[in-house]
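Posting for a labmate who doesn't have an account.
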Amino acid sequence: MFLHSIIDENIVKQFAANYPDDAKKVIQYIEKQLSKVEILILEDRLEQRATKVKTGIQKAVQYLGLPLPTQFKILQTPELMLEELESVRNSESFIILSLDHDINSELTSKTGMDIVKYLQENSEYWLNRIICIFIHSLNPPAVELMTKTLDKTGYLVFRLVS
């Protein structure tokens, strides 16, 4: 949904043909906007899995043809993820998320599904800001539920195997 709302290939071609001088400015603007991508990762096992998840996201982002963000924010609890989402709400950044489901119960009683519910309830805002969502949980039933819920809501969702 996100990528289609930004770039329609036929419109870009028609614009470039009709306004060749302005086409360069538009391309520069699009590249500038795409450089404002933030990657937020929900992962409680920082040392064990975070590096693998980051590598997987980098490969997937390159495959999608997007510029690689230089910073990844790794958040250990759903509460911290929600706080971060609220803090970027008024920024110009676009977001890529990677969500785990099972979070250490010593840290929180919430799971990655709580983030999914929040995104579902606030889809009118986030659908235009979230480029895609990766699910990197090792819990197959949770992955299935999270993926189906997000996909049904209109988000672009991928299963990230790390």
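Reply:
Got it, the structure tokens are right above this. The longest strand covers residues 37-42.
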